[in-house]
Amino acid sequence: MSARHLDRSSEEWALAADAADPLADFRNEFHIPQHEGNDVAYFCGNSLGLLPRATHQAVIDELDHWARHAVEGHFNGKLPWMDYHEFVRDDLAALVGAQPGEVVAMNSLSVNLHLLMVSFYRPSAERPAILIEKSAFPSDRYAVEAQIRFHGFDPDQALIELEADEADGTLSEAAILRAIEAHGARVALVLLPGVQYLTGQAMDLASITRTAHAQGCVVGFDLAHAVGNLTLDLHDSGCDFAVWCSYKYLNSGPGAVAGAFVHERHATTTRPRFAGWWGHDKSTRFRMGPQFQPTPGADGWQLSNPPILALAPLRVSLEIFRRAGRKPLHEKSTALTGYLEWLITQRVADVLTVVTPTDRERRGCQLSLRVKGPRESGRTLFEHLQRNGIVVDWREPDVIRAAPTPLYNRHIDCLRLVEAVAQWRDAS
């Protein structure tokens, strides 16, 4: 029976919607953790994505390549190690809406953030400040404070934090743009998230960039919760740089190789940078000369040769994203998250408040939830969900995050989550 003729809050409707899902088969390409012999309802792709089944063989293939070829593995075979980071470039660029030369897979997010701030945070006495959001992810705040101190400035004076102006801790676009305009003359760098990790709010990258550039500011984004979640168009946004990790929505494993974007206008920049031999121009790298000549584009920010065993999972994941397609993924993500929000509103609005903006243009797939009551109630609900095979995550002080990701989540998972919340309420 078509889902159209069923009660939208019923199991029959959810199963019918899943049966009609054009991306349904992609779920079979992932290992789904088990709970008491059944698949868990996994809503934690915003923290660690699931393991693609093809990843195991991809890593084994590289181990076998090493065993057969030893050092010659750098030059032999279908995927020689010398060029391995280039094998993820096109798919990565397509995913984030960039030119191939604007992206590179390397290091980890915080390392990339520091490396790019070396180039793009160039403070002066008149313009020393970095602007971030008040509840920035701790690693970002640590990094910007460290950079400010490194340049001899005082974070108490040179770190500007945007205060939330909306209910539940979100920021209106108007407030963001007003702050940039108000402080712009002092701001060397605007550094904001693509998706705010605690609230799930998505930022308008292009609007922020235009406003900040009009004030003479450099603009960078932390896209840890945006890559593989939002439909990004980094090149067209005009931002100067961006960084992200790959272990969340990109399903590349714990500690996965991260990524960076540098807009093509900076491809041959003379800005200072930390140099390493893998960032040296590829055509002359092995002449072993003493003078650093950076490769044009994002590749020029590399320091060391790429970790092959860590890049293989990213290559597998990006290939899955390419086959699924940006538009179908966006459509399913919007539908799933909208369904989960609707269920919460219809079934457990007396228990949960949705922190994340209701406007679909201002969020990705993550919904941040608060229990109506003391923090202890929220923690108790979180533990109840975990015991019942519903995997969400908890962020202090009182937020439960649930992210129905389109590659492997289903409508029935959303229904299971809300039914478990109702069960907890009814038993309390």
Written description of the protein model:
- By secondary structure, this protein is α/β, with parallel strands linked by helices.
- The chain has two domains: 3-30 and 326-427, Aspartate Aminotransferase, domain 1; 59-322, Type I PLP-dependent aspartate aminotransferase-like (Major domain) (Aspartate Aminotransferase, domain 2).
- The chain has 13 helices and 15 strands.
- It has helices at 11-19, 53-69, 89-96, 109-120, 138-150, 155-158, 173-183, 205-214, 234-237, 308-324, 326-347, 375-387, 411-427; strands at 34-35, 38-39, 41-42, 103-105, 129-133, 159-162, 187-193, 218-222, 241-244, 259-262, 352-354, 367-371, 390-391, 393-395, 399-402.
- It has a seven-stranded mixed beta sheet, with helices on both faces.
- Strand 7 (187-193), helix 8 (205-214) and strand 8 form a beta-alpha-beta unit.
- Helix 2 crosses helix 10, helix 3 (89-96) packs across helix 10 (308-324) and helix 7 runs parallel beside helix 8.
- The protein is globular.
- The protein starts with 10 loop residues before the first helix and ends with a helix.
